[in-house]
Amino acid sequence: MKKWDVIQQAALGSQGIITVAQAKAMGVHPAEMYRWDATGRLVKLNRGVFRLTAYPSKGLVSDMAAILATVGEGSYLCGESVLQLYDLCPTRSYVATVATPRRIRRTTIPKGVKVVKSQPGYKPIYHEGIACQKPEDAIRSCIGVLETNRLEEAIDEAEEKGYFLPSEKENLKKEVCHAKTTA
């Protein structure tokens, strides 16, 4: 199998995104990645992160995949970004919140990305190929950040879309209302 075919196969499952580290692991030299960028096969998105030109950006999901690739291995979306990804309620679309288990240099973080420390042992789920918090965990993390009525709308929307059961909905609503009364 040709090196280019290997890169295409790897990028299929990640919204057309491939990193230099992933390419190295498959035996592709970084210089080849930059050569493919120069010839138009790849587009450089950030330091060490590329998108195949055959897979153009599909909006939010592709952008989130690129952000996670930039932040690095083990990172996942959290908080408002998950609510935005699942389309549960309006959020600040210009800010993406990413949790990561390791330290990140400020110079590698794209503008509009907020990096937070991940919870030890937390196992993210995947939504459209994007690693993220579970919707109920994202709603909990937004208590005190978003308005209570917006969180209640997000809970109703998530239950309607089948992301959790009615009993979980009631427990979350109680937590949100309790936070409202203690604030």
Description:
With 183 residues, the protein is α+β, with helices and mostly antiparallel strands. It has two domains: 3-52, no CATH class; 60-182, no CATH class. Helices cover 44% and strands 16% of the residues. A hairpin with a 2-residue loop joins strand 7 (125-127) and strand 8 (130-132). Helix 7 (148-160) packs antiparallel against helix 8 (166-182). The longest helix is centred in the C-terminal third of the chain and has 17 residues, at 166-182. It is elongated.
Task: Using brief descriptors, characterize the structure shown.
183 residues, 8 strands, alpha+beta, 44% helix, 8 helices, three-stranded antiparallel beta sheet, elongated
Outline:
The chain has about 180 residues and is of the alpha+beta class. About 45% of the residues lie in helices and about 15% in strands.
User: What is the straight-line distance between the termini?
Assistant: 60 Å
In quaternary terms, these chains amount to: single chain
Form type = elongated
Order of strands, widest sheet: 1-3-2
Number of helices: 8
Q: Helices and strands: which structural class?
A: alpha+beta
Q: Kindly report the average pLDDT value.
A: 84
Q: What profile does the largest beta sheet have?
A: 3 strands, antiparallel
CA-atom Rg in angstroms: 18 Å
Number of domains: 2
Topology as a string of helices (H) and strands (E): HEHHEEHEHEEEEHHH
Strand content: 15-25%
